[in-house]
Amino acid sequence: MSPSPFAASSFMIEGISALEIAQLYGTPCYVYSRAALTQSYQKFAAAFTTHPALICFAVKSNPNLAVLNLFARLGSGFDIVSGGELSRVLAAGGSAQKVVFSGVGKSRAEITQALLAGILCFNVESAAELDRINEIAGKLQMRAPVSLRVNPDVDAKTHPYIATGLKESKFGVAFNEAIALYQRAKTLKNLTIKGIDCHIGSQLTDIAPFLAATDRVLALVDALREHGIELSHIDLGGGLGIPYETHESAPPIEKYASAILEKMSGRKESLIFEPGRYLTGNAGFLLTQVEYLKEGQDRHFAIVNAAMNDLMRPALYSAWHDIIPAQTRDQPEKIWDIVGPVCESGDFLGRSRSLALMEGDLLVIRSAGAYGMSMSSNYNTRPRAAEVMIDGKNHHLIREREKINDLFSGEFCLPL
Ligand code: LLP
């Protein structure tokens, strides 16, 4: 979970202390390390140099323009799930030709937008979507590039909310219906069949389910060839897990890559990957300050100024995030529940953490770079946090803290 060791007894993010960032930008505040983002991208890319592969960063994990721009400059493509994400990618300087469009509910407007932008491929998730894309492409006198997202019925062994590759999931088309659907796609005049896609879930800490899914996908690619359907790319989705706890292990990218590359040996289809969390998760931190210490009979609560609206993962998935003080304190530790000000008992960021705390202390919530800010909300009319990018000794505001007035500026009272 590096890159940030303690230095001069204050938590450092690259060359700047968390205390200084908090003073400059206030809290709660999301902070990202440019070096860590770059390093994770380059590590992923380096693992796949022996076979043509395109990394399409999963925008949903961290859609800040500065983050997208950084990945675009590194050569990344993008996996989007909405027209809004496409607009962000283009605004950030990303190339439409490196965009794949996933998601079960693409609207007509979104399909039109993506066709006009000239994206690389639609990852189609149903027969009805295939027809809709064909119809819209026809009206625009275009041909739409498509892949089918197949559901390989593999258990990703992750939290049920983020497992997507089981038969009962809403995602993708059933494995045993895929060939018939490809044959149908072939008869639709305004489509070009490009490839195949699967994504079985997120935060996978074991590579076995990925490999099982890859085997099934490759078997399908071969069967399709026998039916006269040649694919040019194979999109294996995202989902590679990261360590959230110090003792937790996640598969090294090299192990994941070499196992997949071995299966690809002698094959000519190029690869696409859609990593989100792997690229951003451990490159981000949420800074929050202790408002109150409330010591009860049974439990001690540290009430901080970040809440479930800022970081929803603990409340939604019982996710564990490492929480450490930004400064060292020479006093005994106690066991604290780190909770926010939101009026829900589910509003916790961490439970039973052994920490030495005082009111006003700054805490660093680690591994917050993926699905942190992107899932934040204004619940309890709380303005969303600022976002800051650290680059060596430089710091850049990459998103302003929301202002309270902005939160209701689009609302109107009834006329008398
Ligand atoms: N591709 C598709 C089609 C996806 O649905 C996702 C994530 C990804 C790629 C990227 O997956 P990653 O590499 O980041 O695991 N909010 C949850 C995670 C939801 C993931 C949704 N889909 C969380 O905070 O754990």
3D structure, described in words:
The model is unreliable at 1-8 (pLDDT under 50). This protein has helices at residues 18-25, 34-46, 65-74, 83-91, 108-117, 127-139, 178-187, 208-226, 253-264, 277-280, 313-317, 404-407; strands at 6-7, 10-13, 16-17, 29-33, 53-58, 77-80, 99-101, 121-124, 144-151, 173-174, 191-197, 233-235, 270-273, 284-295, 300-304, 323-325, 334-339, 348-355, 362-365, 386-391, 394-399. Helix 2 (34-46) runs parallel beside helix 3 (65-74), helix 5 packs across helix 6 (127-139) and helix 8 (208-226) runs parallel beside helix 9. It is globular, with a radius of gyration of 23 Å. The chain is built from twelve helices and 21 strands. 28% of the residues lie in helices and 25% in strands. The N and C termini lie far apart (57 Å). The strands form three sheets. Strands 4, 14, 15, 16, 17, 18, 19, 20 and 21 form a nine-stranded mixed beta sheet that branches. Strands 5-6-7-8-9-11-12-13 form an eight-stranded parallel barrel, surrounded by five helices. With 416 residues, the protein is α/β, with parallel strands linked by helices. The structure holds ligand LLP. Residues 58, 61, 79, 102, 162, 199, 202-203, 237-240, 274-278, 313, 317, 370-371, 375 line the site of ligand LLP.
